[in-house]
Amino acid sequence: MYEGNGLVGTHHPPSRQRLITVHRPAWKQKAQYIEVGGVRGKVEHALAEARQDHVRSGLRRRKRSPTTPRAKSVKMGIDLDRHHVRDGHRKVPKSTNPYVKLLVRLYKFLARRTDAPFNKVVLRRLMMSKINRPPVSLSKIIATAANKANAKTNEGKTVVVVGTVTDDNRLLDLPKLSVAAMRFTASARARIEKAGGEVLTIDEVATRFPTGANTLLLRGPKNARESVKHFGFGPHSNKKPYVESKGRKFERARGRRRSRGFKV
């Protein structure tokens, strides 16, 4: 047996011995150098002793005093419904108009401090893009608010449009209306005031009707744009084609009429 350098092994000198180093965990560090050709039982015994020493040292650790202050608590986060699923709605307006930003601040306060769903809807529409805030014509307002079926129900109510109110020159008679909107065209404003009605802004709605009582919230047709008519895929989707011209020689071949083979 060779016992040089504190190593117990075979008769081979240290230069011919194969050594391995045992790193983590800590209880293995006691048996740091183990000969590969050594006795397995001795190695297991040394490891068991090191493990027991590690357990005893853990039991001797000093416990935290109840008077010791705990670490500073972390604020709670947002409770998400599903993991990695984001809400696509805007949380801040994209508009650089300072008056729109002031309206958003106003209705954020009203939506938080009141239980009225009206304020939450107005806040969401204030932050929408222009495509999602289509204009509303005077004829649309009359057809909804002042028709024969709903005239008594909507009598005295203020029509609120989070968008633009436009004129309709096909409309001959305009009754007295109270309309609030973000913007009015010049002719629409003149016709409403000439009929004895009143034109309000959205911030005036907040002062008069903070909960949205006695109001009628309207919005325009979102899919009435020309570009929406071209959306769709494949035949029988009734999408509008992009044609160079509407003359005699365009879009008249097979697939467009029965006399040219087939029509889809």
From TrEMBL:
A single cellular component GO annotation: cytosolic large ribosomal subunit
Organism: Didymella rabiei
Compositional bias ranges of the Basic residues kind: 254-264
InterPro entries on file: Ribosomal_eL18, Ribosomal_eL18/eL18-A/B/_CS, Ribosomal_uL15/eL18, Ribosomal_uL15/eL18_sf
Region: Disordered, residue numbers: 51-72, 227-264
Pfam families attached to this UniProt entry: Ribosomal_L18
Domain Large ribosomal subunit protein uL15/eL18: 77-264
Keywords, alphabetical: Ribonucleoprotein, Ribosomal protein
Identification of the protein by name: Structural constituent of ribosome
GO molecular-function terms, A-Z: RNA binding; structural constituent of ribosome
Domain of life from the UniProt record: Eukaryota
Annotated Basic and acidic residues bias: 241-253
Keyword Zinc: no
BP term (GO), one: translation
Family: Belongs to the eukaryotic ribosomal protein eL18 family.
